Amino acid sequence: MRIDILTILPELIEGALNHSIMKRAQEKGHAEIILHNIRDYSTHRQKSVDDYQYGGGAGMVMTIQPIADCIEKLMSERDYDDIIYMTPDGKVLDQGMSNTFSLGKNLLILCGHYKGVDQRLRDIFITKEVSIGSYVLSGGELGAAVLVDSIVRLIPGVISDETSALTDSFQDSLLAPPVYTRPQDYKGHIVPQILLSGDDKKIEDWRFERALERTKERRPDLLED
Ligand code: 6GU
Question: Which of 87, 94, 98, 130 has most ligand 1 atoms within 8 Å of CB, for mutation?
């Protein structure tokens, strides 16, 4: 899968996507993540990418020209499954949306800043608008990093233990059960005996029960649908 990200702050995303699983996914060729600096596309003398908003009011708006030129160039080179705009007024990301995006071949993600981008860019190019939660961030970059991480880890082969991504929290609308590693006894805090029993069926049942219990307690909304 190829993911193009348009941003005025590529450095902010770079670090998040070049470590651990995301790094390996790219090295193994499962994902190609390309950052485009919107400023590089500005034809303005001072390479500006924003301007005052019509109608007045505080806050700058990202202008059409550099973003449209960059998107149009990319669109002339390949077909995008979706052109996503990261914005607090988008649809709040959930596992189902990440699953759907992970089935695509080419994604383009636009990160906004200031008061956002000129509405006409959204009208002309954007097919999906995504938020990562009910709070406001300074820009779409951290949201894009979250979105891309959640998508790329779902691409078959990215996570070495094939079953691992499938047993994550939310994958089956349940939170994950508690996990333990050595030592068996930490200052009297002991590992549940059943996990040491070697009885796979009992362990599986125990994990399911704990997952259900945790979900009822912390996220009952997940059990509604
Ligand atoms: Cl994607 N962008 C911004 N600026 N704020 C957000 C967000 C995105 N998601 C939640 N808050």
Answer: 87
